[in-house]
Amino acid sequence: MKLLRYFFILAFTPYGTFINAQTTLNSSNLAHQYNPDSEIDLKHEVITDSDSTFIFIGLIINQSKPLLKDYTFDFFTTTAYTADLQQIATDKIDSTYIGQIKNQHTIRFSISNSALLNLGAIRVQSKFSGFTYFYDFTVTDHTLAIWNSNDRIQFTSWVAPGTYHFNNSTQVYGYYYNHIFPPALPPMPIREETPAKAMPIDSSFVVASGQKLTFIKHGLFLFQKDSSSQQGKGIRVENKYYPKLAKLEDLVEPLIYITTKEENMQLQNINGDKKAFDKFWLDLTKSPDRAKSIIKNYFDRVESANRLFTSYKEGWKTDMGLIYIIFGPPDEVTKSNGEETWLYLASPDLPKLKFNFIRTASVFSSSHFVLVRDKSYTSSWYRAIDLWRKGRF
What we know:
The chain is an alpha+beta fold. 19% of the residues lie in helices and 31% in strands.
C-alpha cells in the first residue's frame, strides 16, 4: 500500500471553512445517498481501536470523465444531527490509498479518537461538477470488519460464498440463522403485526485469531467479540449475483408489492417457466412493450433496494426498500437523531408525500429503519400500485 498522506492533506480545504454555509447535518438534503444517477457513490466502513478510528471509504465515480484527483475530502464531527459541525484539523488525519477496482477507489483515513464526538461526516467536493456531497457515520465501538481473499475490505452487509477473514486479534463468536424474513407491509396500518419471535440459532462456532472463514450456506450470520454484548456484526451470505435477482424463481416474491394475492400464487406455481412468466405480464398489460418496461424498471428498483438497504434481511424486504421500489428515489432526505425523513414532491399522478423512518438498532445492524405507518397513505399507495400495473410509474 502506498502512503498518500501528502496528497490527501493537500486535497483538504482550509480548516474552519464551509461551502454552501453548511453548519448542521440535518440542514442538508442527503437524497444523493439514494440517487442511482448521482455523480458519485460513497461506501464506508468504520473500525475503532483504543487510540484511533479508521475510516475506509470506497469512492465510486459513476461518470467516465472525472478522476480521483477531481475530488477532495474533509472530515467533520458533531454531537448530533442538529448540532454544529466541527471540521477536524488535518494534522489529526492520516490517509492511505488502498487501490482501485473498476470505478471504485478505496482509501483508508485514520483519525485520533480524541478528535471525534458522537457523529461524523465526510464531505466530498467535486471540482468536476462543483457539487458538494455529505455522508454521515456514527462514532461507536466498531470493532469488526471483514476482508475477502484478495485482502479487500467488504463495504456491504452481504457477501458471496467464499473465503474471508476478520481484523480480529482475539477469537470471534459466530452464529448462523437459517431464517426467512417476511416482506414489508404496506405504508398504512392494515392489520396488527404479530410480535416478532426470537430467532433460534441454527448453529454456532468460534473463529480463532487469524483464522480464515469460508461461507457456504446462504443466510444470516452474526459475529461478536463478546458473546454477552449487544453489539455485533451481521452478514448476509447471498449468491454471487446479489444484489441482482438472477433466477426466475427469485423474481416472483418481490412482485408481492404490485400483485394481488391470487396473482402472486399464480406466479409461484409457474415453477421457473419463463414463457408462463411472460404470458402472465402480457395478459395483465395487453402490451409486450409495456410488460417489458414494467419488468425492467421494477427489478432495477429491487436491485437498488438490495444494494442500499440490505441489513439483516434483504433490502427489498425492508420498509425503506418497499417505499423506494414503489415511489422511487426520494427528492429530499433529511436526518436527525434516530430518524430519517423522505420527501417526494408532487407529480401529475401523485401528491406530495412524506415518509418518516425510525432507527431500530439491533445486535445485527445499527442502520435498520422502520416506517411510521399512517392511514393517510392509503389512496396514494393504491394509486402508485395502479400506475405500476399500467406501466405509467
